[in-house]
Amino acid sequence: MMRVIIYTTPTCRSCGVAKQFLAERGVGFTEYDISKDQKKMVELVSRTGRASVPIIEIDGDFIVGFDKHRLAKKLGLL
């Protein structure tokens, strides 16, 4: 089973679209709101060099932004 984590903020429209995309396909995920979780934000920046959202982590690989095709491919949905 894949481990999916999505890093978000409440004002990020693409974050909502990404979460809906995952939910509609039955993909379970853990969400971290980096605007409220400073530790996760620091961890994310140290691992990716970025603090932009959404960032979706799938088994240790990162997708920056909501790239529907790349996300579906990584999840084995294509």
TrEMBL record:
<dbReference type="GO" id="GO:0009055">
    <property type="term" value="F:electron transfer activity"/>
</dbReference>
<dbReference type="InterPro" id="IPR002109">
    <property type="entry name" value="Glutaredoxin"/>
</dbReference>
<protein>
    <submittedName>
        <fullName>Glutaredoxin-related protein</fullName>
    </submittedName>
</protein>
<dbReference type="Pfam" id="PF00462">
    <property type="entry name" value="Glutaredoxin"/>
</dbReference>
<dbReference type="InterPro" id="IPR051548">
    <property type="entry name" value="Grx-like_ET"/>
</dbReference>
<dbReference type="GO" id="GO:0045454">
    <property type="term" value="P:cell redox homeostasis"/>
</dbReference>
<dbReference type="InterPro" id="IPR036249">
    <property type="entry name" value="Thioredoxin-like_sf"/>
</dbReference>
<feature type="domain" description="Glutaredoxin">
    <location>
        <begin position="4"/>
        <end position="63"/>
    </location>
</feature>
